[in-house]
Design brief:
This protein is α/β, with parallel strands linked by helices and 136 residues long. It has one domain: Alpha-Beta Plaits, CATH 3.30.70.1350. The protein has four helices and eight strands, in the order ββαβαβββαββα. A three-stranded mixed sheet has the order 3-6-8. A hairpin with a 6-residue loop joins strand 4 and strand 5 (72-77). The termini are far apart.
Length: 136
């Protein structure tokens, strides 16, 4: 605060605000770094928005800010998992990575990270010869 002629002038402080898309983008990047995650599936609403030409950040992630506090969020992730991976282990890793990265880069408190596996697909990057070598 600045003191001038026995009067206090208030200092200007900026308000911090983050959009759901901004937080969702960090969460999506964290989820996609987990071994076993093929992609994330956008919700039906996001798919409609994209068809209308609206760019949506953080596809496959839903972020809800807590009603009690603007500094806490709940996150839901919708991954596609590669066949052969242990789904509960991949889901656990997604939860840990998303919570850690969002808290680290945004300063928000992540209350929950829910993971809803939408599909299991084969890893097309593996060639049949790779599978034969591992089965021997």
């Amino acid at each position: 605060m600045i003191v001038n002629d026995n009067q206090l002038a208030e200092s200007i402080k900026g308000d911090r605000s983050m959009t759901q898309g901004f937080v969702a983008q960090y969460a999506a990047e964290a989820a996609l770094q987990v071994d076993g995650v093929a992609s994330l599936v956008p919700s039906f609403a996001v798919a409609l928005k994209e068809k209308a030409g609206v760019v949506h950040e953080g596809k496959g992630v839903r972020v809800i800010f807590s009603e009690d506090s603007s500094d806490s969020v709940s996150i839901t992730v919708y991954p596609v998992i590669f066949y052969g991976k242990i789904i509960p282990e991949v889901a656990w890793e997604i939860q840990e990575h998303v919570k850690e990265d969002v808290e680290k880069f945004t300063g928000l408190d992540v209350e929950t990270v829910d993971v809803y596996v939408t599909r299991v697909i084969e890893d097309e990057s593996k060639s049949p010869s790779d599978e034969e070598e591992t089965n021997i």
